[in-house]
Amino acid sequence: MTNNQLNQSNLANLPSHIDIPNYDRNKLTAGIVHIGVGGFHRAHQAMYINELLKTPGSEQWAICGIGLLENNRSLRDILVKQDYLYSLVVRHPNGQIENKVIGSMIDFMFAPDNKQNVIDKLANSETKIVSLTITEGGYNIDPMTGDLDLNHPDIAHDITHPNDPITAFGYIAAALRIRKANNIQAFTVQSCDNIQHNGAVTRKMLLSFTEQQDLMLSHWIAQHVEFPNAMVDRITPVTTKADIDYVAQTFGLKDEWPITCESFAQWVIEDNFSDGRPNWDLVGAQFVTDVTPFEKMKIRLLNAGHSVLGLLGAIHGYGTIDETVSDPVFAKFLRAFMDLEVTPLLDELPGIDLEQYKNTLIERFSNPNIKDSLVRICSESSAKLPKFLIATIHENLEAGRDCSLAALVIATWCLYSDKQTNAQQEPIEIQDVMKDELASYAHKTTIDKLAFLKLNSVFGDLNTHPVFIQTYRDAIDAIYSATSNIKDIMKNTLESKQFGISQGVLK
Ligand code: CS2
Fold it and tell me: Which residue has the CA at smallest separation from atom 13 of ligand 1?
């Protein structure tokens, strides 16, 4: 074992079974500028580009990463040290492991240090695509109206400070203003976040933003910028010390921020680009004319399924998704939620067998080699649940369908936010920008059972729906009863839906 740093010159020292970039990284240019270089981007889009670069002809499609947040400073320092290289450890359910070094990122800019450099990079004609993983909360959608939350302090700041942006929208608008003035072709804005109609939503938010800032620019964007919708998928847990140690031992090199992910990866993209695009279809992605049914299936089953397991599992005292789903009561509850409350809302998908898709999800969640923590899954639930779960509740209510499983999850979220402890009275780590607000609404539950639902910026008008209110009240009664146990409540709820413990996948 050696302690040499992972970097370009040390690649040659890697054991031969490690898959390394076999292309000349000096010949690459960054046609893609990516905002939000989290683990998911590094396991997904950057991996697809890495595979594409292995065959000549795509040298113009390497990636320049952009970090907008203060906590991206250390990522920048690590990537610079490592010549923007990092290891990707792909863990299959059967224990097989693929060890790779990804070379598709060739630059990284930490925006707070030099905003103008970032704006200039985005404005440069070499930049053809600006892609985003800024998380569900990064779009600042007001759930009451579905419009951009103009009162959000960062958005309000960016509207009045066009040359001193903080948000992705502020940077994109500043760069497009320069491109418009200089007659440079517009780039594509490509969202890679888990929001249904992510491209259309990005367009709507950016246009609302620029309408406030610069109406002519807004018209130009509406005419010239494409925003392809896409469904993105790959489970990527947070990097742990064990991952860093694994890479040190296996690669014999020090990588300060490796990424571990599952073997499954999927990317379905609408083929609308303003100024060209990589041939991602050559390396496993799929171009379609309408991604709507794919993204709805993925967000409402996988992402919502994660949140269902995450909140219920956290209250019970489990730590990871695989641990939670290996408990038959939780697996059963998840399956019932998918079959009874989501499947009826999904559109037909030619070529996709939904039963098979759901079975595969349970297998993926059960992968014992992916230790996906419930802390990650439940993080920023205030931004995730409106898109993953509350949308499903609304659609079921409109169709006159029962939603008692989803109501139990929301009631559990209330208890989780209120007590912040699990069934063993151990503290639960909660990462959510709205943690205190969620807690202050949840604390009032003992005097007003519907108090949590009154947080309109998360639940919209759900607290005015008589059928939901009744179902939710019952769930709160069960969850807050002194003798209650989450697994018994889950079983009772399943029985009440005639989805007894002997039915479904766990026969
Ligand atoms: C997870 C996702 O916490 C979450 O939001 O559901 O990060 C999920 O792992 C990815 O979307 C998988 O593609």
Answer: 233
